[in-house]
Amino acid sequence: MEFPKEITSLPRIFDYLNTFFRQQKADQNIVFALNLAVEEIFTNLVKYNSDSTRPIRIRLKKNGRKISVSISDFTTKPFDITRHKNTVHSLPLEARPSGGLGLRLVKKMTDEVHYDYNKKTREYTITLVKYLGDRNV
Amino acid sequence: MFEIRLGPNGEIHLQGRFDATQVEKAFEIFNQISETTTIDFNDLDYISSAGLSVLLKTQKRLKSEGHELILKNLNRHIREIFKYAGFDLIFKIE
Description:
The complex is a heterodimer of chains A (137) and B (94). Chain A has 137 residues and is an alpha+beta fold. Chain A has a single domain (2-136), classed as Histidine kinase-like ATPase, C-terminal domain (Heat Shock Protein 90, 2-Layer Sandwich). Chain A contains three helices and five strands, in the order βααββαββ. Chain A has a five-stranded antiparallel sheet, covered by helices on one side. Chain B is α/β, with parallel strands linked by helices and 94 residues long. Chain B is 36% helix and 31% strand. Chain B is built from three helices and five strands, in the order E-E-H-E-H-E-H-E. In chain B, strands 1-2-3-4-5 form a five-stranded mixed sheet. The interface between A and B is medium-sized, with 29 and 23 residues.
């Protein structure tokens, strides 16, 4: 499904995610983690990728014991989030910037994060994966 | 849905989902805080880094004036987020 590239799309995105999670009977750990991770990636694309004004595409999939969410946008300046290092969480209060935590939370709250960039189409995709617990299989 | 209200004893109560669409609404209340204040998370289900940034900016301002935010009744998921963000090191959590 595609969503306009603006922060006000978030409620519709959460509805889309949570309808799917309910269908999959995903537990609250997965629901919370993927709501958070998708919000962080989506808002980063809205704030920092001004290359494209096209809608952002979100795809949901359950494959065996995994639920994955793929978020795609277009850019000429791809940023590989899997290589991102963040240490702001350990800084003292006075030295902390107001941003920079989102990608750390994405990595901590998900089981896998994948990055893909198609140089020809300039499509950039981040895939977030959570493993289902026994009761979700 | 996100609600924020100032209780009669000066505590601030958060309710619902504190995501990136709610930052402006939250600042309308947080910017009014000028002394040590307790924030009650009992009815808050969700917070993202956008919500954390509101708390962080407020904590920085208050600390520079000799005050602070005190947080209470965080649910398990939000406690986890606070730990990963290192917020357990810079906030008093009851």
